[in-house]
Amino acid sequence: MAPTPTPTPVLKPGTAWSDAWRRAVAAAPEAFCEDHVLNLWAGSWQSGGHTLPATSPVDGSPVAGPPRLDAETAGRAVRAALDEHRTWSHVPLAERRARVGAALDALDEHRELLALLLVWEIGKPWRLARADVDRAVDGVRWYLEHIGAMTEGRTPLAGPVSNIASWNYPMSVLVHALLVQALAGNAVIAKTPTDGGLACLTLAAALIRREGVPVTLISGSGGELSGALVRSPEIGCVSFVGGRDTGARIATAVTDLGKRHILEQEGLNTWGVWDHTDWDALTAVIPKLFDYGKQRCTAYPRFVVQRTAFDAFLAAYLPAVAAVRTGHPLAVAHPDDPLPELDFGPLINAAKAAELTGHAADAVERGAVPLFRGRLDPARFLPGQDTSAYVAPLTLLSPPPSSPLYHAEPFGPVDTIVLVDTEAELLAAMNASGGALVATLSTDDPATFARLAPQIRAFKTGHGRPRSRGDRDELFGGFGASWRGAFVGGELLVHAVTDGPAGERLPGNFPDYHLMP
Hints:
2 domains; 16 helices; Ald_DH_C; oxidoreductase; Ald_DH_N
């Protein structure tokens, strides 16, 4: 009997970019024009700015590009936000709660459209895109319940909060932060990420603005707008999520100005394996670590493994990484099929994919050993589509110290493994980047974990399980260069964007002190 031919994948009907764009324009006509978006400042959606072309990482096709403002216009937007801040800071808490709650209802109503925009703009698989929206809405609802106790005896800042965030979590990180900051009594400003999320954030901002919450959303070059968004005297606090280079420049500026700040920066999060035998548990968790192609601030791209356990580690690791699923997030075998269950789709753009592939090839040339090299399955892509932003999982043993993959977070599906023989080597390798957001140590002995974990320079260290940013009352921060300024999560997020008693020392990593919660 002849084998049954494999169906040719098709784009799921109703999920094209044109479908998402049409629905977004219909949902918020004040924010979208026929072929571009507007900036939101001084309480209204305004034209202006030079619109740059943009493409989707999913297939290289055109999507809406950012309307970049100049520094002068951004300064006017910040001054207008200060005027709104002075009014909003006196709005009673009950009314702020009502308005933010109404905004959450609107976001929830448009959940699937916001998620679809995320798929096209930043390449998130459907499951993860919906989770990004849900975490934003559900997380802020928790703050609605608890904001009273968190703000007791505290006042809003003297000026609005300026938010500069990376593209990977537009809803669950950026929109979540904006709404909590506003709930605490501050007007809020956000710069759209350079690499993606524009249409999703524009729709979200339109829905929030309709409910009377003072949000400003503008686009522009980080270098050109930093004077307004970081150094302006009107700004009460700077909140940043991104890389260490940009974060270091912002840290210098806000420190010189004595300005409140929350700067979440990258670090090399590591997973150590020492005197460990529960290999089934490790096999089960490996695919989950590839969510969104490890384009997360809490991803684990480095395994530090006891040399005598390396054979057992590989037996657990290799089948798991081989099971990781990547492909076009909206490609289906039949039109009525559900959207595919993928661990990740494309990286944020083709340039990042080429850069990461180049780093990996250079590491191998300098001595790293390729242990696993995945491949892109044609059955998970549309015929003839552009796949230049896709990178299959890759695992390298012993990256050379001269490689960027040794010290820095790759922000892509490349794992590196370092072998060690002593506990001292284990700790040195796990602390290679001088501070991280999260870490994990897999060891059978609780006493060994209790002894070694405090020496791992990460804000959160899991015992055989991954750690993440967390939600609701879970705290979050970083050690070393991975974090500057106030820690967040739970009441700490509210305290970071409000003023308390005179002489208050917020938990955080500041130039003159480090205070853990």
